[in-house]
Amino acid sequence: MSDRQKSKLGAELAAIVRYEDPFLLVIDKPAGLVVHPGAGNPEGTLAQLLAGVAAGGEEESRAGIVHRLDRDTSGLLVVARQEEAYRSLQQALKQRRLEREYLALIAGHPPARTGTIDAPIGRDPRDRTRMSVRLASGRPARTHFSVIELLAETALLAVRLESGRTHQVRVHMQAIGHPLVGDRRYGGPQLSGLQRQFLHARRLAFTHPVDGRRIEIESDLPEDLSRALAQARQPTARIRGH
Fold it and tell me: Is 70 annotated in the active site?
């Protein structure tokens, strides 16, 4: 990205942009940044950083936001800069042509090297801040995973989404008895020094909505997750609550 382009975006936003053209941006979101305003998070969101830059969709407070990541999940997401691109990217998301791959560190070892979790997800009626698979009214959700590395008490997975439900990876991993390390909300065990769930959106791939080019962006693990993974790789590694 040129210095001139960065100056148009603003320094804070430019620092997290991985790709930019007149039609869209790819953002490498840091943990702790909320994507759009909501209950308890009215200010300091990515959507507000994008004001005047992003466009598309019916909600002004979420202009250009095609999909989202949880506050404490880091990694890549695409944002539209005009209505045509927004509609095209939304369609690609619905048709499962927007490829999203995550790195996740889970408690224990899954029963197979690869697998698919196909379980509807809905809001937990007993706790509105959580999602659950134990609901007849849940929306369809499918998560594919493959083992990258088996560690002493954990496993590093590559996770690919077909759908995009709230907390999908976190809920599905809890449902099969292997919650994410650091995920307090869904019963994940704790690793010393890790202050969030170990989940990073490391790869995003799609066809450009205007010129048809293949766009594929990857994001390295941020420092806190790299440290946690190095710790989990130690033969004597122990995680609390497992």
Answer: yes
**Mean pLDDT in each 10-residue stretch from start to end of the chain (242 residues)?**
53 94 97 80 82 92 92 97 96 94 97 95 84 83 96 96 90 96 95 95 97 97 97 82 62
| Domains of the chain, each with CATH number or no CATH | 1-95 (3.30.2350.10), 101-203+219-242 (3.30.2350.10)
Sequence-separated contacts (24+) of 123-132 with Cβ below 8 Å:
123/166, 129/185, 130/167, 130/185, 130/186, 131/165, 131/166, 131/167, 131/168, 131/170, 131/171, 132/171
Residue in 21, 28, 70, 118 annotated catalytic: 70
Phi and psi at 62, nearest 5°, equal: -125, 30
Q: pTM of the entire structure?
A: 0.91
Is there a contact between 181 and 228 (Cβ–Cβ < 8 Å)? yes
3-state SS, residue 130: coil
**Per-residue pLDDT at 5:** 46
